[in-house]
TrEMBL record:
One of its GO terms (biological process) is carbohydrate metabolic process. One of its GO terms (molecular function) is beta-glucosidase activity. It comes from the Bacteria. The lineage of its organism: Bacteria, Bacillati, Chloroflexota, Candidatus Thermofontia, Candidatus Thermofonsia Clade 1. InterPro entries: GH, Glyco_hydro_1. This is Glycoside hydrolase family 1 protein. It holds the Pfam family Glyco_hydro_1. Keywords: Glycosidase, Hydrolase. It comes from Candidatus Thermofonsia Clade 1 bacterium. Belongs to the glycosyl hydrolase 1 family.
């Protein structure tokens, strides 16, 4: 019998999908639903509306789907705006609803990872100045405490914030997301408050639930200088410091240093991390153009690699290995890939993305980098922020028809199921679902002349 190659993960490795409240629940009332009302902000002026109808009860059927995919974990977020719809008034029914979701996951053999903040805020919080307010960390942590107290018997794995630097830049520097500010000062202030909020939440969760595991989801933007590198490299370094380094370093040192700003001390942040979440999607080229006043540093799509739609950058999933290596070497924390995926309505790129990503995880594990789980973005197509329901931004293993709420399985879902069921990747899986990758991933399994096969027996 021939022995087929397998790249197996350690026992207990978490396989799942990730979702976020505002993107799937529907019927949201928060700063985002308010923002969606303004013309020209969302693709075709769409609203999140009913989204995937999780709040109306469809989470159960979608968790069934995740269970069919042999997922043993699921990352989802809970909405602050539902749990504290008015300042200081907590809605026990909303907590009860989230309890139902977590129970539903446990019933299906899936361990929940709960994100406490995934981009959206209660309207009252936004009206009080949102993340620019000095009170923001304290307001956030009051909610966090209530939420964790209400859910602690159903969850130990907490993610405080999703992509704080993406939120700070999209909302306060580029003005694409609420509150639509375009100010370096506001961005820096919001980012510092998000850092304080994370630190306060970390300590609060540990005091409510000492055996909890608390981390946050870091968006890792792949960045290279455009050619000529000597000219553009300082731009790449500044963008890297802003998006990839500053927040994480503050958790190591207690000092928050954004590019072109004075360092500030946030002592509570030092060591406030049990694990690091990595979300890796795209590669960009950093550019420096001194003629663009106030905007001299930019990024653009790379050439020579597959790229995503519109402004989406280069798709180089194998780089996940280097991202993990860099983060582990610097921060020394266990790592979860809390999101990884690709905008791909026709499902032509996703299988390759998944297989290359899983191989990158396996390589990382081979170096003893402690990768604990992988959450694919996303289980099903959902509301993609400013891109709304633009079909080009379909991320799901299941396609969602937003008129009928029908879900259709993509072939990638079947591939992912095989990987989760086998706890890794095998030559068979690659041969069946992404045959063009077989010579690269399992060279000994492909292209060998028939006669050699005989010799094996
Ligand atoms: C990430 C976000 C997630 C989703 C994916 C495509 O940056 O965390 O909500 O929008 O991108």
């Amino acid at each position: 019998m021939s022995v087929r190659a397998q790249l197996l993960m350690p026992e207990g490795f978490l396989w799942g999908c990730a979702t976020a409240a505002h993107q799937v629940e529907g019927d949201s009332v928060d700063d985002w639903s308010q923002w969606e009302e303004g013309a020209g902000r969302i693709y075709q002026n769409q609203r999140s509306g009913a989204a995937c109808e999780w709040w109306r009860g469809r989470f159960g059927e979608d968790f069934d789907r995740a269970a069919t995919l042999r997922n043993n974990a699921q990352r989802l977020s809970i909405a602050w705006s539902r749990i504290e719809p008015q300042e200081g008034q907590f809605d026990d029914a909303a907590i009860g609803r989230y309890r139902e979701m977590l129970v539903a996951l446990h019933d299906r053999g899936m361990k929940p990872m709960v994100t406490l903040h995934h981009f959206t805020n209660p309207i009252w919080f936004a009206e009080r100045g949102g993340w620019l307010s000095e009170e923001a960390p304290a307001l956030f942590v009051r909610y966090v405490r209530r939420a964790v107290e209400g859910l602690a018997d159903l969850c130990q794995l907490w993610c405080t914030l999703n992509e704080p630097m993406v939120l700070a830049t999209q909302g306060y520097l580029f003005g694409y997301w609420p509150p639509g500010h375009k100010s370096m000062d506001d961005m820096a202030r919001a980012a510092a408050n998000l850092l304080r909020a994370h630190a306060a939440a970390y300590h609060a969760i540990k005091s409510v639930q000492p055996n909890s595991q608390v981390g946050y989801a870091h968006h890792h933007l792949g960045l290279q200088p455009k050619a000529p590198a000597f000219w553009h490299r300082p731009a790449a370094q500044a963008a890297d410091q802003l998006m990839n380094v500053a927040f994480n370093d503050a958790l190591l040192t207690g000092v928050f240093k954004l590019p072109f700003r004075r360092a500030i001390a946030v002592a509570s942040a030092k060591g406030a991390l049990d694990w690091l979440g990595v979300q890796y999607y795209q590669e960009r080229l950093a550019t420096f153009n001194p003629l663009k006043l106030g905007n001299a540093i930019g990024t653009e799509k790379p050439k020579g690699v597959p790229v995503g739609p519109k402004d989406w950058g280069g798709l180089v999933p194998q780089n996940l290995f280097g991202v993990i290596e860099r983060l582990y070497k610097r921060y020394g924390k266990p790592i979860y890939v809390t999101e990884s995926g690709v905008p791909d309505p026709e499902d032509t790129l996703r299988r390759q993305w998944i297989v290359e990503s899983v191989r990158a995880l396996w390589r990382a594990l081979g170096f003893n980098y402690p990768v604990r789980g992988y959450f694919f973005w996303s289980l099903l197509d959902n509301f993609e922020w400013a891109e709304g329901y633009d079909p080009r931004y379909s991320f799901g293993l299941y396609q969602t028809n937003f008129q009928t709420q029908q879900r259709t399985q993509r072939l990638s879902a079947v591939l992912y199921r095989e990987i989760c069921a086998q706890n890794g990747l095998s030559a068979e899986i690659v041969a069946q679902y992404v045959p063009e990758l077989l010579p690269k991933l399992f060279p000994g399994e492909s292209g060998a002349p028939q006669v050699r096969l005989k010799e094996r027996y």
